[in-house]
Amino acid sequence: MLENKNNSRTSLSDIGEFKLIDHLTKNIKIHHKTTIKGVGDDCAIIESKKKQTLITTDLLIEGIHFDLSYMPLKHLGYKAVIVNLSDVYAMNGSAKQITVSIAVSNRFPLEALEELYAGILLACNSYKVDLVGGDTTSSTKGLLISITAIGDVEKKDVVYRNSAKPNDLIVVTGDLGAAYLGLQVLEREKQVFQVNPNAQPELENYTYLVERQLKPEARKDIIKLLSDLMVKPTSMIDISDGLSSEILHICKQSKVGCNIYEDKIPLDQQVISTCEEFNMDSTTVALSGGEDYELLFTVSQDDFPKIKGNPNFTVIGHITEEKEGKHLITRGNQKVKIIAQGWNSMND
Ligand code: ADP
Ligand code: MG
Q1: Quick one: which of 5, 19, 70, 337 has the fewest CB in 10 Å?
Q2: Among 36, 39, 100, which residue has the most ligand 1 atoms within 8 Å of its CB, making it the best to mutate?
């Protein structure tokens, strides 16, 4: 769906900045009436209604956050939007606009930026967000992308990280660990390719993992589902760095502890089989892997009947008093301390 079919090369220096911006932004569709002015003036204009405005930014740097040897530019554009939208949904908000700033070296032809923008606009159209502006400049080396997402939320609906309460249930959406394993698979294929450039990538057994790494989705659907079920989480965060570091953020900011049950952590069958093949521990992968872009939230026990049995949700534990600490209860019924990178089996 996202493959690059474009093989010609047009040098950016032949086009100039203004033509480039016009070219990249000519296919933008505006979805929201609150977008009064998009690309084209000194500023975009957004009409603010009574809601609160959410703003979030991410900066992605080639060689640090992405590797173009296995990340097609169209996927990169798509993912760069998704990671920002995920932050808006994690506040229980609705994403409305984005701005996109890029710095590119002359190593990139126009066609490369067309691919990048095709991915950006695909995400904008499927999540109904308006690309309303940005900045374009050159870099001496590599590609930098900074995206800012703007959203809104009714004051009464905002969900922070700092409001989990003892006895609340800890819930996660989807399944965990696949995106990290997808990266391991792609890294392995890259190394094989470096040794033997004629090698064909062997990815059939890892389709779900690679898709989770290269084409993640943000859980806009969950925000609607929670609203339909009339469930307001007591706290929420999106899983970008891994379950353990995200639950620690909730615990620290809410001044609470937690017990998470190893046997409850949702894993896809491909995660389980690939962990066996790679000799990795699937719990470690789920706790420390990251880039799942699932939502981690807490709900009052009173709301349990509303989420019970829903395949989107897995209850993985509960919140405790702060003094009880933050623990993983293993399959062998051992209580081990959760640390930012997984858990510490040396401590209890
Ligand atoms: P200024 O000199 O005021 O910064 P620019 O010439 O950089 O204006 O940008 C002109 C218009 O194009 C503005 O609306 C800006 O937001 C938009 N724009 C510039 N770069 C990008 C980009 N990479 N993606 C989307 N919109 C962009
Ligand atoms: Mg500018």
Answers
A1: 5
A2: 39
Percent of the chain with pLDDT over 90: 86
Residue type, 170: I
What would the pLDDT profile of 153-165 be if each residue is shown by its tens digit? 999 999 999 999 9
Q: Whose CA is nearest to atom 1 of ligand 1?
A: 42
Pocket residues: Cβ below 6 A from ligand 1: 21, 24-25, 39-42, 100, 102, 131, 133-136
- DSSP character string of 167-191: TPEEEEES--SHHHHHHHHHHHHHH
Q: Give per-residue pLDDT as tens, 173-209.
A: 999 999 999 999 999 988 888 888 887 777 888 999 9
Q: Give residue 103 CA to ligand 2 midpoint distance, Å.
A: 11
Nearest to 213 by CA among 180, 237, 246: 180
Residue with tokens 């905002």: 158
CA distance readout (Å), 303 to 120, 129, 229, 315? 37, 31, 9, 12
- What is the number of the ligand 1 atom nearest to the C-alpha of 44? 14
Helix residue ranges, H only, the chain: 17-25, 73-89, 110-127, 178-195, 207-214, 220-228, 243-254, 269-278, 282-288, 304-307
Atom of ligand 1 nearest to the CA of 99: 25
